[in-house]
Write a structure and sequence with these properties.
The chain is α/β, with parallel strands linked by helices and about 270 residues long. It contains ten helices and 14 strands. The chain has a six-stranded mixed sheet, covered by helices on one side. Helix 4 links the parallel strand 7 and strand 8. It is globular, with a radius of gyration of 18 Å.
Length: about 270
């Protein structure tokens, strides 16, 4: 089995990164060992390119990466878009009618961010790291298809909005409510699993020779489609069930206990 894996797809937050948002020495060493064996490493995140770049550079990667839960496949080394699956403008505009007045609307287009107002109450991880490119009335910047649409608010408002959006747009888009204060919306054609399939095919690697590692609901199809499915010890119940029922699945230690390192050692090195 160890010689079987040719590509490892790694989620970032809650998986590759520990609770301090760092890559541990043990994880870095195992990634280096896998790469020395010719194994490709692909980062697969909800984050935009600018937020993934520091980790990509830290690991000295050269492979394309997956962003926005699969809506964008991007060559970080050369700043080139490989595949883009945007959310149609019409759907984004219709969704705004469901948002409360206190809800902050965000959008990402490729590697640029726009916000209705700078929501310091519930900043996303990317907002903690980067200043938005545009802050202002939604109508001034929501003028074309977007890569990802987001809503932030208090948990009660977000829970109600998530139910409303899923009921109205669940078949027309991909709606993820994996964090208490955040809803993420992408094209129905976008997912980490679909993006990983596309990327693996372009690299000439069959999916049964891919190991996928994650911790959240947006990693479900990525794990289901991979030859080896690894859920972190801190993963949500839905993802742990995918690993438990997979033909070659495993629940690794948590992200604070070098779970990625343990998975690579178990299945690759």
């Amino acid at each position: 089995m160890k010689s079987h894996i040719r590509l490892i797809a790694l989620d970032l937050d809650g998986t590759l990164l520990d609770s301090h948002r760092q890559v541990s020495a043990a994880v870095s060493q195992q990634i280096d060992r896998a790469r020395a064996m010719g194994v490709e490493i692909v980062l697969a995140s909800a984050r935009p390119p600018r937020s993934v770049r520091p980790i990509y550079d830290l690991l000295s990667l050269s492979t394309p990466s997956i962003h926005y839960n699969g809506a964008l496949v991007f060559d970080l080394r050369n700043a080139i878009t490989i595949e883009h699956q945007p959310l149609p403008l019409s759907i984004a505009q219709d969704m705004l009618a469901h948002a409360e007045s206190t809800t902050c609307v965000h959008a990402e287009l490729l590697d640029r961010s726009m916000m209705a107002f700078d929501d310091v109450r519930f900043p996303t991880e990317t907002r903690r790291l980067f200043t938005p490119d545009v802050v202002g009335p939604i109508k001034s910047w929501l003028t074309r298809d977007v890569t990802k649409l987001m809503f932030t608010d208090d948990s009660a408002a977000i829970e109600m909005l998530a139910r409303s959006l899923i009921n109205a747009f669940g078949e027309a888009s991909t709606i993820l409510h994996t964090e208490a204060n955040l809803i993420q919306v992408t094209s129905r054609n976008a997912s980490k699993g679909k993006a990983l399939k596309t990327l693996a095919a372009q690299m000439g690697i069959p999916m049964d020779r891919v190991m996928a590692v994650g911790d959240a609901a947006n990693d479900v199809d990525m794990l289901r489609d991979a030859g080896v499915a690894v859920a972190m010890g801190n993963a949500c119940g839905q993802l742990k069930l995918v690993a438990e029922t997979h033909a070659c699945g495993w629940i690794a230690p948590t992200n604070d206990h070098d779970g990625v390192a343990a998975a690579i050692e178990r299945f690759v090195t």
